[in-house]
């Protein structure tokens, strides 16, 4: 099975990659279109030069690898993707042969977390409109990160059942520290998940969004709510 897990940034996506890698039967790939996205857009991201130097920047070559054999002799291939990395004109037909899963998070949490790592952001930076458009083209199960945090075993068990993959208790924990399959950008973005050994538990109250970012929240919230209405029921 090839699983394309689509999510915006700051959305439990790295922890989910670690969970699937911990199964032992999944090869994983961390944001393979990040370097092509930076090369195509010139986006001013932290470590942009290092990312483009360390990773393939040709989207056609990345797409060919996505469509190719499962790496490392594993049974399954888990690919962590971000919708906003799929610039117009990038190949996407490879994803038609995948199980496409859409991971969502409340935009107030996304905005607060993203601001800790990159002060400036637009709606497109946090990927909400792109994710809805991608779901419309490549529909599949939608799962909310809050449900995973609240009940990791129940939520991942429900997701695995939905996509026809046997659930493994190994998905609920991993060793502390970086992983060999992390992208080079992990040095900037992955500090918290590198301190983790599993999912962190239920989140508290929504963070307060400052006045200067209220318009961003108001633009993202209807998209989130529309996708939330489609999310797997995990309770």
Automatic annotation (TrEMBL):
UniProt entry keywords in alphabetical sequence: Amino-acid biosynthesis, Aminotransferase, Branched-chain amino acid biosynthesis, Transferase
InterPro entries found in the cross-reference section: Class-IV_PLP-Dep_Aminotrnsfr, P-loop_NTPase
Presence of keyword Repeat: no
Residues in the signal sequence: none
Gene Ontology biological process terms in this record: branched-chain amino acid biosynthetic process
The keyword Transferase is annotated on this UniProt entry: yes
GO molecular function: transaminase activity
Pfam families, per database record: Sulfotransfer_5
Family stated for the protein in its record: Belongs to the class-IV pyridoxal-phosphate-dependent aminotransferase family.
Family matches, as PANTHER family: AMINO-ACID AMINOTRANSFERASE, AMINODEOXYCHORISMATE LYASE
Name used for this protein in its record: Branched chain amino acid aminotransferase
Organism: Roseicyclus marinus
């Amino acid at each position: 099975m090839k699983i394309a897990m689509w999510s915006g940034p700051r959305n439990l996506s790295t922890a989910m990659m670690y969970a699937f890698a911990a199964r032992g039967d999944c090869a994983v790939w961390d944001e393979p279109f990040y370097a092509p996205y930076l090369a195509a857009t010139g986006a001013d991201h932290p470590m942009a030069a290092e990312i483009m130097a360390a990773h393939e920047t040709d989207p056609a070559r990345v797409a060919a690898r996505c469509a190719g054999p499962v790496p490392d002799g594993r049974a399954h291939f888990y690919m962590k993707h971000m919708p906003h990395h799929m610039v117009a004109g990038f190949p996407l037909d490879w994803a038609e042969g995948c199980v496409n899963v859409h991971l969502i998070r409340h935009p107030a949490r996304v905005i607060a977390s993203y601001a800790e790592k990159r002060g400036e952001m637009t709606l497109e930076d946090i990927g909400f409109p792109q994710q809805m458009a991608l779901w419309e083209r490549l529909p599949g199960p939608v799962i909310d990160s809050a449900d995973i945090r609240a009940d990791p075993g129940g939520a991942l068990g429900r997701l695995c059942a939905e996509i026809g993959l046997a659930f493994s208790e190994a998905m609920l924990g991993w060793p502390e520290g970086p992983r060999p399959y992390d992208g080079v950008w992990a040095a900037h973005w992955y500090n918290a998940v590198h301190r983790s050994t599993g999912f962190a538990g239920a989140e508290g109250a929504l963070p307060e969004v400052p006045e200067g970012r209220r318009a961003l929240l108001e633009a993202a919230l209807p998209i989130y709510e529309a996708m939330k209405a489609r999310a797997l029921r995990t309770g």
